[in-house]
Amino acid sequence: MANFAMWGLIVAITVITVVVIIGIRNSIVSARINEAIKKEGTETSALIVDASQHRNQNAEGRLSLNLTIEFTAGTEKVVARKDVVVKIFDADEFKPGQRVTIRYKNDDPSQIVVLGNASN
Question: Which ranges does the record mark as transmembrane (predicted)?
Answer without folding.
Answer: 6-24
